[in-house]
Amino acid sequence: MGNTKGYVDPLLTALTVDYSKGVREKLIGSRLFPRVKVPKSSGKFARFDKGNIMRVVDDTLAEDGFSRKLPYGGTMEPYSTDERGLSDDYDLADASQREGPFALKDQQIVERIVTQLEINQESRIAAKVAALDGRATALAGVGAAKANKFAYTSANTGGDPFTAISDGIKACFWRPNLMIIADSVFDALEYHPILLAKLGEANMIKKVDEDTLAKLFRVQKVVRAEGKADFGKPKADGSLNLTNLWGNSVIIAYVDERPDFPCAGKTLAVDYPEADSAGYIVRAWDEERAGLRGKRVVQVGYDVDELVVCPELIYTISSCI
């Protein structure tokens, strides 16, 4: 173990590769805004709209025999990443406990911090999507219309989720390949009579799931968003008021992992030489003057920005229930 302040621990940094990937697989933000590397903390990144990619252009050779320059493409706009990180410490006396090549406490701290940083990023991406101007519709009231909330009872047939979601798909100029449905909204859709009628007799179990919804709406992937967090101030009794990170919403998007390609969004991570493939850097050092026997400090951080690449490839149906 290094005892120099600022020491970058390569083994602990390597640990975050698989662990952070496992955390992201359980969340939604990393699917909606895939992570890509950028060379520095500020620069320019391609943004798109249908006006700069959905045109027919002249592809005949010019009079001099050379091909014409593509007149449209992404607009290069500034980005600026933020350094983010958290740390924790423990008594040096506990550093002797090891799990493989790691001190057990070091590994536990890294895993806790990575989980928290990924949840924080999930919250930031959800907030950016919710704030997009003109890219959402809010449902309201009780009734059978597409503008009404989805939830239904024996006295209320519920709104029309098929038409509401179909309209959201049409609002994207490329057919979306990802649909995100908040957990509580999924519960309202699971036995919704309008969706069951659309699925017909082929739906033998008389309920909808992720696969049947993907086929019904012709999207590649439907994901149930189950992540929750407490957005309020800490309470004296330690209790939590958990709400879904994605609200009571359905989010429809076209996503693509390729850099500089039209899609809903990207997470930009600075490609520091010391960082892992997800951009994480783990520093660990001993503070021998802290406490009676000294402290071991572990810090995990990265330099990131969550960027909307093409607003016209995202659409949200909010207040669904």
- Element-by-element helix/strand order: HHEEEEEEHEHEHHHEEEEEEEE
Specify the number of helices.
7
The number of distinct β-strands equals 16
Give the overall form. Answer: globular
Beta-strand fraction estimate? 25-35%
Q: How would a textbook summarize the main sheet?
A: 5 strands, mixed
Structural class label? alpha+beta
- Pick out the low-confidence regions: none
| Overall helicity | 10-25%
How far is the first residue's CA from the last residue's CA? 52 Å
CA gyration radius, whole angstroms:
24 Å
Overall pLDDT: 87
Topology record:
Layout: H1 10-25, H2 29-32, E1 35-38, E2 42-47, E3 75-80, E4 82-91, E5 98-99, E6 102-103, H3 104-130, E7 136-138, H4 161-170, E8 178-182, H5 183-189, H6 193-199, H7 210-217, E9 221-225, E10 228-230, E11 242-244, E12 250-253, E13 265-270, E14 281-287, E15 295-308, E16 314-318
Parallel strand pairs: 1-13, 7-16, 8-9
Antiparallel strand pairs: 2-3, 4-15, 5-6, 8-12, 10-11, 12-16, 13-15, 14-15
Helix pairs in contact: 1-3
